What does this fold into?
Amino acid sequence: MKILYILNVFPKLSETFILNEVLALQRQGIDVGVFAMRSLKEETVHRGLQDVKKLRYLPLPSLIRILTGHLYWMLKAPVRYGRAFLFALRRKHELRRLFALRLYDVKLIADEQPDHLHAHFGLGAANLTMLTFLLTGIPYTFTSHRGELFDAPPKNFRIKSLLSKRHVTVSEYNKRYLIDTFNVPQDRLEVVHCGVDLSQFKRLHQPTGTGANRILSVGRLEPMKGMDMLIRSCALLKHRGLHFSCDIIGEGSQRSELERLIRAFELESTVHLLGAQSTDTVRDRLCHSSLMVLASRCEGIPVALMEAMALYVPVVSTRVRGIPELVEHEKSGLLVEPDNPGQLAEQIQRILNDPQGSRQLALQAYKKVSEEFNIQLEVEKLMRIWREEGFGRKNAVAKIGAAVG
It folds into this structure.
């Protein structure tokens, strides 16, 4: 089976889950390639990127490519070209622009002769897979995460779901939201978690209490990640006389504001903004941390928490959206309400003051990840969807006709 991933951007440091998924599929013997619409130049890159066997970047539209694409599909598949044109014309969303500019990309994708297309995020790349389906009949699936659901949702979630072989999403919370908000039929949805490759995680973490109290947080420096709340919690802990250090790994637009906050609370020797770091550095820091804290105001199910749990590091996070599906309060971690630095400080202090109880939380956390967020098990769910019968070319043509009509 030949699978082609269509992505908006690749690689992206904050999206390790896509790389993990591709590499896990390769280990399963799947012929998987990646077509990205653009590359994001980052100084720090993923370890394992060099192991992706087939990676290609789609060219930027040019006049010659635009004309070539339209002429190619007009001659090769005039009926489908006309249907796709009508479909794009009747719907005021990004597909209209993609149809105008990106038909040459569809040709490049079709030339690879994939059995199935898969996209991550429900925006540009997913729209390109849908457009490719309209012109070729190649079935597709796509995974929706957080941002495109809650921040800037597209208007075509329902039709994109109906035309797909299955609309995948990463949490039960997202699934309910898609049903209630976008009227996506329940039988078109499948929950497949982002996961971690447990074979990459060795049991290096020592029980808390054996050294300095080290707090770690990993995430972009953006308001939704709640790093300001973590800093405020650190100020409360310092005021109580607790000795600790807090490292924050990540980069983003809020850096200057967070630096001012650290100075205002006189935490320069306690809280450190380390910037973006490689996966190896993150894991090394985790192995020497007493706990992992994620104070998010809005989340899907963060891979950063999964990785901490896979290393037997106790976690404290917020009770928002998909996080309680991963972190069960008092069982596999501790949860607090968002924007509550006092409550967050209390739970951090609880972890630091109770090494034995924290160790039990960490053991349960590892069990949770290994059973429900194991990348090998999750990609098997994807493969079952892709291999499902009953989605032949005749069915595809019927779907396209119904959508256009």
Remarks:
- Residues 205-211 have pLDDT under 50 and may be disordered.
- The chain has 18 helices and 13 strands.
- The longest strand covers residues 2-9.
- The first helix runs from residue 16 to 27.
